[in-house]
Amino acid sequence: MSDKHDRTRRLERLRSVLAGLPRPRPQAGFRERVHAEFVRAPMPSGGRSHAEGAAAPRWPRLATLAAAAAIVAIAWLLDAGPAWRVLAVQGQGIVRVDGRDVPLTDPAQLARALRPGAVVQLPLGAQLDMQVSRTIRLQLVGGSRVTMPQRLARWSHRSSSMALESGEVRITTGPAFRRRRFEVRTPEARAIVTGTTLAVMRQPDVSCVCVLEGGVTMRTAKASSLVRAESRRSVFRDGSPPLLEPILAMERMKLEMLQDQAAESLRR
Amino acid sequence: MRDLFADDHGANPAVEPVVPEGGSVAARPLTAGHWTPIDGETLRQASQGDPEALGRFFEHHFDRIFAVVHRLIGDVHSSEDITQEVFLKIRRHIARLDIERDPAPWLYTVAVNACRDHCRSAPWRWMKRSAPLDTEAVERIRSDSPDPEQELLDSEERLRVRKAVATLPMDLRISVTLHDLEGLPHEQIAQITGTSHDAARKRHSRALRLLAARLEEL
Fold first, then answer.
1. Collapsed DSSP state (helix, strand, coil) of residue B10
2. Which terminus of chain A has a lower count of CB atoms within 10 Å, N or C?
3. What is the ipTM of this complex?
4. Cβ(A170)–Cβ(A141) below 8 Å
């Protein structure tokens, strides 16, 4: 009886302590960021609509279809965003683009060859800088093998992606990149860029996202993580636990150099 | 990548709670319990994408959802990631909300399932993180307390209890968090977790007994 009474008292005391535990509070910066994403995200299709009301006027069917087709065509032409521009080339050697050789010393030919979806192999020691208007700048590091990204359209496809099979790509965005999205896919992970400066590296069986400023979402088959500024996260093909570390000094230096180089062209 | 909330089975967030493993759908309408429901007009405007209403919706729910996630997960960085994913999902489905019902129980369900998924996908990470408790997001001792010594003792007791909660199996941790820390009644917890009222009550009793035993060991 006494034991039961003691047990009851202890449980009551425990519940009292539980009820008095302070509530964890989110950090202000994190809260503001999620708030901004929540409020500004576009409404998905299928949302509630007030579009009920008077029936459309009765136009002749063919004229309506023709007008609609013309509007779509014009919108499609206007929507097509600017192409990727080759801004700078360093090093010597041959770039393999879709199996064809293109000399690094011929930027014009290189620019023509670098179409969306092209598979590009950069020679060791080279470096290739590309940019889309004032939105985003990519820096491909020598030895890398990538699939070129699509154009960033004005209205429709405000996202683009590229594949990194091996090597390294550094990325920095400008103010005009707002509300766009760029993805770098490796066999192990996807890095989702919404406005920041970072590098994505892929070596045999490991992918790493290294962030200088801002935050990058890194998604694998099992989880999604936010890689914050001044940190790097590695995920391994064999399923070993991901590794989170501070950014390396060399990585910081390279990304800061990229920011400086892109400052004027991105109007940061 | 598998959808983080694949267990949802496309459930209507307005009526049906998300079904965890082994549970059954309780298709009864839910109420918020002790949580003050958001006003219907804000909910209607938010479901239509009005930015100001979305902001009010966010302010009404965010801190509480973060608190639940952090209490279940323990690590602030993972809690932030999960909370962010939860609100992304809420944002994607907000247009489907039944504006006649309080969405709070659905939010709890999404958050709880997200935490379960997180722990299931990386159990070793949870085992690793359950040892050192993250105190970053929790209040510290008030320096202006009239009785600092008692405050210190109370603070140590709270820390012991939090550590003990962190060692509970997930289902029991959910039970304690929702009932004792969030103040939800067993009936609502049953609907959130997809169990019966009786099972929820018994689970809570088991959780408290195990918690008391763990405290003896700490």
1. coil
2. N
3. 0.75
4. yes
Q: How is residue A58 annotated by DSSP?
A: -
**Per-residue pLDDT tens digits for B140-151:** 444 455 777 777
Of A7, A48, A224, which is closest to B47 when you measure between CB atoms? Answer: A48
Residue B81 with chain A: CB contacts under 8 Å = 224-226
- Partner A contacted by B163 (CB < 8 A): no
What residues 78-107 of chain B have any CB closer than 8 A to a CB of chain A?
Answer: 79-81, 83-85, 87-88, 90-92, 95-96
Which residues pair with residue A183 across a beta bridge? Answer: A161, A192
Helix (H), strand (E) counts: chain B:
9, 0
* Cβ pair A250, A235 in contact under 8 A: no
pLDDT tens across A46-89, in order?
A: 444 333 334 444 556 677 777 777 777 666 666 666 778 888 88
Phi first, then psi: give them for residue A231, nearest 5 degrees: -140, 165
In whole angstroms, give the CA distance from residue A209 to residue A226: 10
CA distance A198 to chain B (A): 19
d(CA A190, CA A207): 9
Going A114 to A120 to A123 to A125, the CA torsion angle's sign is positive
- Residues of B within 8 A of A37 (CB-CB) are 84, 87-88, 91
Residue A15: which of B2, B137, B180 has the nearest Cβ? B180
Say how far apart CA B10 and CA B19 lie, in whole Å.
10
Residues of A in contact with B87 (CB under 8 A): 34, 37-38
For residue A150, which phi and psi values (nearest 5 degrees)?
Answer: -80, 170
* Chain B positions in Cβ-Cβ contact with residue A39 (cut-off 8 Å): 51, 54-55, 58
Tokens of A161: 């992606």
The number of residues in chain B equals 218
B104/B116 Cα distance (integer angstroms): 18
- In degrees and rounded to multiples of 5, residue B177 shows phi and psi of -65, -50
Find tokens 């302070």 and name the residue.
A22
Task: List, in order, residues 6 or more apart from A91 with CB less than 8 Å away.
Answer: A104, A123, A125, A126, A127, A142
Q: In terms of CA atoms, which chain B residue is nearest residue A219? A: B1
